[in-house]
Write a structure and sequence with these properties.
The protein is α/β, with parallel strands linked by helices. It contains 14 helices and 13 strands. The radius of gyration is 23 Å and the shape is globular.
Length: about 375
């Protein structure tokens, strides 16, 4: 997607001031920031900003876009424009909060890749290669020593691709990295498109409950070569262009009748009588559950924390006898939800810091 042209009748100093101030506002989009920054780059307008920047890298160091969601096409367009005026790859990577390899890939300078692509293969070829090494239901190799293991909940610290083959079959329930530039420890969330989908395809296995943006669930169906049995909308109020994500069931089906939800007007006498008989209203295929925000009581030091309530409801409506497995357990919301509903669960996390966060949450809830 190409960013629409941004024009302004303000001075470069005014545009720069709004750019550096607004990036901290909730819901301020990466696209808008790019519009303003690219306007400043054209005709060297950035040099007119007091106290007067002569070096492009020093100018970039005065801006921080790392808290914004990076859309890959917009990032690549901006990287190429910065390269045209000889901005350093290190300064560009620091500005955008990505690795220098990502900048090199966007410029087509990594592994001889044309147009920044990982290689000349298309997604179908990559999927075919990974089909030869799909994770099977039978455990293989020795299971590593758990980072945490109490009351039926286990956390393994390491790469899920190495640990998953050693585990028993389970219900995979996960909120994977979205590949939009979040700053995770030990993981770069800005892979090339083909590389990203090949990575997910190598990790995910049936039965699967997964949270992702709706357009990505459509892509995932192609990668997994099957359509989901059910998709529910997780809806939230946020100052961002995207107001919902999909929860998709592959290889298994939820039973929404297992959970009742409160009526909207519980103080009405007739509603109270109905609640006494039914226990609540039927569960719809859209769930209004607010995101975890910086002011939320459950907020942890994790950039993309999923609400426990979302995972808890997903587990409650998905019957399965084996353990729940989350290969990207992060701050441990899936594991805490499993603990609440009395399900055995296994989490895998590549960041030791996030493993400790998850373990502490489980200890606090269990205690």
């Amino acid at each position: 997607m190409t960013i629409r042209a941004f024009e302004s009748h303000e001075t470069p100093e005014q545009v720069y001031g709004r750019l550096t101030e607004s990036v901290h506002h909730t819901g301020y989009g990466f696209e808008r920031a790019c519009e303003q920054l690219k306007w400043l780059l054209r005709q060297d307008r950035w040099k007119a900003i007091p106290p007067g920047y002569e070096d492009i890298d020093k100018f970039l160091a005065s801006i921080d876009l790392t808290e914004l969601r990076l859309a890959r096409d917009e990032r690549k367009d901006l990287v190429q424009q910065l390269a045209a005026i000889r901005a350093g790859q290190r300064a560009t990577a620091r500005l955008l909060g990505v690795g220098e390899q990502t900048v090199a890939r966007d410029l087509g300078k990594l592994r001889g890749a044309p147009n920044g692509a990982a290689d000349s293969k298309d997604l179908r070829e990559v999927i075919a290669e990974h089909d030869k090494t799909l994770i099977t239901d039978a455990p293989s190799g020795a299971t590593p020593t758990p980072y945490y293991s109490e009351a039926g909940i286990t956390i393994y610290h390491g790469d899920c691709r190495a640990i998953l083959p050693t585990l028993e079959r389970g219900l995979m329930v996960t909120d994977p990295p979205y590949n939009i530039g979040y700053h995770y420890n030990e993981y770069g969330d800005a892979l090339d498109d083909v590389e990203y989908w090949a990575f997910l395809q190598s990790v995910l296995r049936m039965p699967l409950v997964i949270i992702h943006y709706p357009e990505s669930i459509c892509r995932l169906a192609m990668v997994l070569r099957r359509v989901p049995e059910k998709v529910v909308a997780w809806v939230y109020q946020a100052g961002t262009p995207k107001q919902w994500r999909g929860i998709a069931w592959f290889g298994t089906s939820p039973d929404l009748s297992l959970v009742r939800q409160p009526y909207r007007n519980p103080d009405d006498k007739r509603v109270r009588a109905r609640m006494a008989l039914s226990g609540g209203a039927a569960l719809y295929d859209w769930w209004l559950i607010e995101q975890v925000k910086n002011v939320s009581a459950e907020k942890q030091a994790h950039p993309c924390q999923i609400p426990v309530a979302v995972m808890q409801r997903a587990l409650q409506v998905t019957p399965f006898d084996g353990p729940v497995i989350d290969p990207f357990c992060g701050a441990g919301s899936t594991l805490v939800a499993a603990q609440i509903v009395g399900r055995r669960a296994i989490g895998i996390e590549i960041s030791e810091e996030y493993c400790e966060i998850a373990a502490n949450r489980l200890r606090a809830h269990g205690g």
